[in-house]
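fwd from M.: "can u put these together and see what the complex looks like"

so here's what she sent:
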Amino acid sequence: MTIEIKRALYNISALADLGQEITSEKDFSDKIQSVLYVIMGTFLANRGAIFWYEKDKGKIIPLARKGFDAKGAPKLRIRLGHVLPMKKNEPYSLVEGQGTAAFRRFRDGAVQTGAEIFVPLWVRDEFIGLIVLSNKFTSQPYSPEDFELLKVIANQIAITINHHMLFMDLSHQLEENRRLYEEMRRIYHDTIQAFAAAIDAKDVYTKNHSQRVAKYSVAIARELGWEESDVEGIYIAGFLHDVGKLIISNELLNKREALTDKELLELRRHPAISYRILSKIKFPWKNVVKMVKHHHERLDGTGYPGALMAEDLDEGVKILTLADSFDAMTSVRAYRDKMALLDALVEVKRCLDTQFDGKIVAAFCRVLEKEIKGDLPEPNILPHLDNDFDPSVITGLLEALIRELKD
Amino acid sequence: MKATNFKVVSRLAGDVAVVYPQGYLNNLAGESLVKECNSYLSRGVRKVVLNFSGTDFINSIGISLLLHIMEGLQEGGGTLCFTNLSKVHRDTFEMLGLTDHMLVFGDEDEAFRHLDAGSGT
């Protein structure tokens, strides 16, 4: 085999090495360092560097280098103006290069650092960076064949760097979009919470009621294995379920005496009013408006506003109904004192299948039991209840209910 | 890409460091070989024998790393001997014109005899 053939085989194997490195799943800086080693090993260069042109800052910065960063050695400083006149992706010999006096000054400085070959990297009309190589370890000159091979390598590296930088740009953009989305989401939640506080403020007895209903609903929905986006939807529905009360007079909402039939009818308008207000809003979550509209329906069809039967009610509606009723039971109202937890649970049990769905009640009991036992790191229900109950009695009742509902 | 766990073992025999690259010298793990040789240099050891009996494969990355070692020894006024090179590796180094700049021996004993004789690079 002639030396030319051996050399050609070595070059082919170097190109294969380059391909392997470029397509490897390595970290980008390791990949570029490996690519630099491939080039230096192919051309036997003592020193080498791969630079990237950071367009936003107008700077040419090193991605990988070897030998050019030695302590005390003259620094290799490259400006865009030095490189732009060179041909795209073609090796340029500093030793042989001519040019203006300014370029010759730059060239002499670069040669002092040991640089001998520049290969400007371009993708179409975009300058990407450059490869810099020193002379060869063997002191042989770069041959025309070397230059041809360097051109091929330069094209590959230009595309690799360009792809990576485009990907990084997209990643940054995605990250920024995510940050903006989170910020908007936070503002949205804050606005809804402020709105809910305004609703609850109308009735002195329902302070924080909307927040509690939201939290209880979230606890039940999570226990039922809902997707987090749906959980967020019921959280919002919980906050807004009584928005229609904004239209109901304060006198009626705070009336201590029993309501007349006419007043009851007026009060029962609030879910439909809530629906009318909220249906103008395009929520990013499913069924928010539907859950709000029907949170006073009952399984036996005696609820309002639609007098819907159990089979027409979605799980979300059933959850919101239980959360709303349970909070009403365990809170003071204008016309009655709050119920003890035990009594509220007994009442929930009594209303099974007429007002409350067994599957939802079972989930509620499970999550409450877990919270009492300290099994949940962030309880949603327990912090809002009076702590004057006997945990063993309550958990006994919850376990019995869970068993009963399982059978 | 051939990839095995590359590792470097070495020993000090008198004033000679004998370094054994083991595995494929074809990726960034090979930088540990450069570091090992440099660490002997920084401790004042000026004679290094690189025994390639445990190295089956050297690619362009490996060649680049060996150039760093050769240059480091040259600049530090040391002597670097290559031993136990396979025929393929020896042919490659020869084709690249590197053997004119290397001290290549069949085995460690030959390298030691050369170093004992006080020959430079």
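replying to her w this: Chain A touches chain B through 27 residues (CB under 8 Å).
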